[in-house]
Specification:
381 residues; alpha/beta; Rossmann fold; 13 helices; 16 strands
C-alpha cells in the first residue's frame, strides 16, 4: 500500500464501513499507535487496519477542509491534498452560468463539484478507478446529482464547459500543452494550476485568477474561452469575507511605483496581491511607494483609509542587521514579545528570535528586509 494512496479494495472497505462510530472510538487513540492497533485488531484484518489508520489520520483534516461535521467523505491522503478546499470551491461554483453542463476532468475526490448550485450538473472524469469511486461515493453522501466515469480526460467529448485539476507532484499531468489543446473543445473552462506557475506561459487572452486567504496564495486559476478577457484577478477569502482586485494585463505590465526610503508606515500586501503583482496597481491608487525595487514591501507617510489588502505597521525604529544593533534597538524600546517577518533576507524567523532573546514588556514586529538595496531591520507595531 502506497504511503499516500489507498488501493481500490481498501476504499471499498472504507465506503462500506460505519466510519462515524469507528472515528468516535479511535480518533482519541491516534497519539498511541499501539493502543489503536490493538483495538482495531480485535475486529479487522491487517489490510483493513492499515486502511482505517491511514484514513483516521487525515479525517480531522478532511472535516476541517470541507467544513463538515455530519458527513465523512471518502478519500486517501493524496486525493485529500489535491482537492480544492470548500471556501475556494464555493467561490468558483458561483462563477458558472446557471444551467451549465460541466465536465469535471481529473475529478479526484470531487472537491471542485461538491458545492455547485442546483441546476448545474457536473460529469466527473478520471483515469483512476479509485478516484471515480471516491467522487461517486462522496456525491452520494452529500446528496449531489453529479457522477463520474472512468475515462481519459483528453478523450472526453465536448460539453459546454470544463474544469480540470491536473496532477501536480512531478510536473502537470496531463501536460499544460495537452490542456490548452483540450480547451479548444469547450466554450470555456477553468484550469487549476500551482500558485507559482509561470505567468508568461499562460495565453495572453486568458484571465488569470489567484485565490487564497490572509496568509497564503493557494491556487492559480486560468480561465479560458468565454471566461477569458485578458484580466489579472486576485481574491482573498478571509473569515467569511471575500476581497477582490483586478486589472487588465497590459495595464498592469506598464504600472510601476516610486522607490524611496522608508516613511512612517511599512505595508505588507496579502499574498494574492503579491503573487498576482496587483499590489502595484492597488498601491498606486493609495500613493504608496516601494522601499526596494525587487520587493513587495511598501511605505507611506500618512495612512489612507482605503488600504484594503495591505497590513499596515507604524514604524518605530530601524537599524542595520548587525546582531548587536538589533538587540540594542529592541532593548531601547522594551520589546520582549516579537514577531519577525522577512523578505529579501535569508533567515529562519523562529531561530532568529531565539538568538535575539528579546526581553521587555512590549510587543513589536521586526522586519528583516532591504531598503534601497541595503539590508535593514525595521521595528514596527
Amino acid at each position: 500500500m502506497n504511503e499516500d494512496s489507498l488501493p481500490l479494495e481498501a476504499l471499498e472497505f472504507l465506503r462500506k464501513a460505519e466510519i462515524s462510530p469507528i472515528a468516535e472510538e479511535c480518533l482519541p487513540l491516534l497519539k498511541d499507535p499501539l493502543k489503536l492497533s490493538d483495538k482495531l485488531s480485535k475486529k479487522y484484518n491487517q489490510q483493513e487496519r492499515r486502511a482505517l489508520i491511514h484514513y483516521l489520520e487525515i479525517l480531522p483534516k478532511i472535516r476541517k477542509k470541507f467544513c463538515l461535521q455530519n458527513v465523512d467523505l471518502i478519500c486517501d491522503r493524496l486525493a485529500f491534498e489535491q482537492a480544492t478546499a470548500r471556501d475556494i470551491s464555493e467561490y468558483k461554483a458561483k462563477m458558472w452560468q446557471s444551467g451549465a453542463k460541466i465536465a469535471d476532468l481529473c475529478c479526484g475526490m470531487g472537491g471542485d463539484s461538491f458545492w455547485l448550485p442546483s441546476g448545474i450538473v457536473a460529469s466527473g472524469v478520471d483515469i483512476a478507478p479509485e478516484r471515480v469511486l471516491m467522487f461517486n461515493e462522496n456525491m452520494e453522501r452529500l446528496k449531489q446529482p453529479h457522477r463520474a466515469v472512468l475515462q481519459n480526460a483528453l478523450e472526453i467529448k465536448s460539453r459546454d464547459f470544463f474544469c480540470i485539476d491536473p496532477a501536480r507532484r512531478e510536473g502537470l499531468n496531463p501536460s499544460f500543452e495537452s490542456i490548452l489543446e483540450l480547451s479548444k473543445k469547450f466554450r470555456g473552462g477553468m484550469v487549476k494550476l500551482p500558485p507559482a506557475f509561470p505567468e508568461d506561459e499562460l495565453p495572453k487572452e486568458s484571465d488569470v485568477l489567484y485565490l487564497g486567504d490572509a496568509k497564503d496564495c493557494r491556487e492559480c486559476l486560468m480561465l479560458t474561452g468565454v471566461f477569458g478577457k485578458g484580466i489579472i484577478r486576485a481574491v482573498a477569502i478571509c473569515e467569511g469575507k471575500t476581497f477582490e482586485w483586478q486589472c487588465e494585463k497590459d495595464e498592469l505590465q506598464s504600472t510601476s511605483l516610486d522607490i524611496k526610503k522608508l516613511g512612517n508606515f511599512i505595508l505588507e500586501p496579502v499574498p494574492v496581491l503579491v503573487r498576482s503583482h496587483l499590489f502595484l496597481s492597488e498601491a498606486k491608487k493609495c500613493s504608496f511607494w516601494q522601499i526596494d525595487s525587487t520587493l513587495a514591501y511598501l511605505s507611506c507617510e500618512e495612512l489612507s483609509p482605503e488600504h484594503k489588502g495591505f497590513a499596515a505597521y507604524k514604524v518605530i525604529d530601524q537599524s542595520s542587521l548587525s546582531t548587536n544593533n538589533v538587540k540594542a534597538m529592541l532593548k531601547k524600546h522594551g520589546i520582549g514579545k516579537l514577531t519577525l517577518k522577512k523578505r529579501g533576507v535569508e533567515v529562519v524567523p523562529e531561530a532568529e528570535i531565539h538568538r535575539l532573546s528579546p526581553k521587555g514588556e512590549r510587543e513589536g514586529v521586526l522586519f528583516y528586509t532591504r531598503i534601497l538595496g541595503e539590508k535593514r531591520a525595521i521595528l514596527a507595531k
